[in-house]
Amino acid sequence: MGSSSVKTLVIVESPAKAKTINKFLGKDYRVVASVGHVIDLPPKDLGVDVDKGFKPTYHIIKGKQDVLKRLKSEAQKTDRILLATDPDREGEAIAWLIAERLKKETPDIQRIEFNEITATAVRSALESPREIDRDRVHSQQARRVLDRLVGYMVSPVLWQGIVKGLSAGRVQSVALRLICERETEIEKFVPVEHWKISAKLKTPSGAEFLAKLIKIGSKTLDPNKYRIATRGDADKHVAAIRKETFIVKKIKREKVKKKPPPPFITSTLQQDAARRFRMPTKQVMSVAQKLYEGIDLGEKGTLGLITYMRSDSTRISDEALKAVRSYIAGSYGTDYLPEKPVSYGSKKGAQDAHEAIRPTHISSDFEPRNIKKFLSADEFKIYELIWKRFVACQMKPAIADRVTVDVAAGEYLFRTQGETIVFRGFLQAYQPPGDDSKVAEDDEDGIPNIPADLKEQQRLELIDLILKQLFTKPPPRYTESSLVKTLDKLSIGRPSTYSQIIATLFYREYIRLEGKKWLHPTELGRTVNYFLVQHFDELFNVAFTAEMEASLDRIEASEATYLKTLKGFYEPFRAKLDSVTATVQEIKIAAKGEDVRICKTCGAGMVLRWGSDGHFLACENYPECKSTRSLPKAEATSKKRSCKTCGSALVLREGRYGSFLSCSRYPDCKYTRPLGIGVDCPRKECDGELLQRQSRKGTIFFGCSNYPECKIVYWNRPVARSCRSCSFPLVEEVEGKSAKKVLKCPDCLTIQDA
What we know:
Elements: E1 6-12, H1 15-22, E2 29-33, E3 39-40, E4 48-49, E5 55-56, E6 59-60, H2 65-75, E7 78-83, H3 89-102, E8 109-111, H4 119-126, H5 134-161, H6 172-188, E9 193-202, E10 208-216, E11 219-220, H7 231-242, E12 246-258, H8 266-277, H9 281-293, E13 295-296, E14 302-303, H10 318-331, H11 368-371, H12 377-393, E15 398-409, E16 412-423, E17 459-471, H13 480-489, H14 495-507, E18 511-514, E19 518-521, H15 523-536, H16 542-556, H17 562-582, E20 606-611, E21 614-619, E22 628-629, H18 632-635, E23 650-655, E24 658-663, E25 672-673, E26 676-680, E27 689-694, E28 700-704, E29 713-714, E30 717-719, E31 731-735, E32 741-744, E33 751-753
Parallel strand pairs: 1-2, 1-7, 7-8
Antiparallel strand pairs: 3-6, 4-5, 9-10, 9-17, 10-11, 10-16, 12-15, 12-17, 13-14, 15-16, 18-19, 20-21, 21-22, 23-24, 24-25, 26-27, 27-28, 28-29, 30-31, 31-32, 32-33
């Protein structure tokens, strides 16, 4: 090594990060970027020598040869190298792989890390360099090897059993299983009828309010335990209640504290952003990455605006606590400032490697509104969300006055409850979804919940009893937000991987988005899940995957070794894989568990395959026998489902965008039309059914399948339920108060509950 032009070379991953950090350092430093990973496992081979201690074989990533060449050239000009890759396991592994390639050029290589890209944090990191943490490297390397073993060894079995090109990821397949199992729950769910009885009551002064029946004798009403099951039962109770005298039995007044939520960690940031903005988790993390690496703020320069966005810790530094408490006192007043900083416990298993996600600069100059002009729309949304949540987490709780009133009518107990915020506390800075300054809900008729003149033992006048028919509802499908919450709760993967897990499921077309937010498994996704659960249940289940995450944590904590962990996984995995592979030709997959069909041409078994039009059954002797047939599901036809071109029956098929109907004479006749929504056309002289269509401007509407002969159109989704007032054969789903869905009759315009 000759004379060096730069004493210290600092290597980071991102050019934006390099640009930001370069401004903090003097002429003795040069900051360059590796532009992400430079070295990795080979893209088309296993790249792991199982017989030699699971030794990985690393290659330069295609297109990164010039990057590595430049890094070596820079290394030859410097006295030492500081690797400042991201402060997590993956960053540690990247640092180690780069160090292995540069140690000949510059032996003096150390590691630094910082949780935020500010001048103070970077200079502090420069003062405390360390050696690369090999335990963290081994932990990340074990994760990569595990994923590679599963992906490269199970996927080919999928190819033999279903169709080539499918993928079985170690963690993504468990996420898919959760989505598929929820779908099965919904399909098998049987709604249970129950009736709600409410009493409209009047006080001696004339004030009216509504109370709900909650108890009959000693039995509390619960749709799943004790319920009013039929209209007949409800009518009997109504008749009995009308004979009783209504007395205020108990009034309970209490002050309720609503504590602020903790500062964001990766999973809660993804959940909140997905819920508020319907922003895909992958997009959330991409925007947060930009905010972390640095934004050009004009005269202020390029600055990192948030701390590292991959964190599972709620810990906050003393400096940040001091700054935010000063900001709260100045912006909201000391009434909103607790006596001492608020601390939050991290969940079990959190790595606690660095702080919670928070703003790096906490002063009025960096309030979201004051730097909005420098941010894109998405950057502003995420930055403001992080800012408000962090400020709120160090404010006093909100306080509400809660009043609960129990009204007795013989053996029947009615209850009403109201709640009003009297001190907003942290709500001044951050309003969680669903919260409002007046929490008490008014009844459907706008009658205030709790009259002020209510007293215990007061006699009330019954104005009317209101009956409402209800049905229990199935569990909702997952959204990105709720799936992330579930994965985090079950310790499936790591928060930093959630966005990639969901993105992969979309990319593989294992799931699709329905109704703008609901995650719905495709037929392909359900088939893959069915195969994996049938034959690799021990591998692709929640408990096993969570235990593997714990094993990786133990490697990082020096409580387990790389070799022992991988060996303990691989030996039973290999035995199971060999067993399934040996019998794969005998495995006959049928969609949703249907029986295997027999080939009518040669008598062999039929196996499920996947084509451009969805599932079909094909002879296992392919290519010698090319016999195929549609799934039984596609054979079911309806008298209304006839081809408008040739009159033949229509069959249900699956395409890349979901289900549709096509002529059974395809490819001779190529007529197709959208799938109906399960609602018949309400015109008596028409035998059509309503279809979902899209206007030229992209607006969704619902029209008759017999168009243009029948031109009936609905702009809200029709529901196959007769109007209770006029018996019109359908109602429309419309948005009522507080964005709650209600049903409206298009004929008599009566509003009914969904």
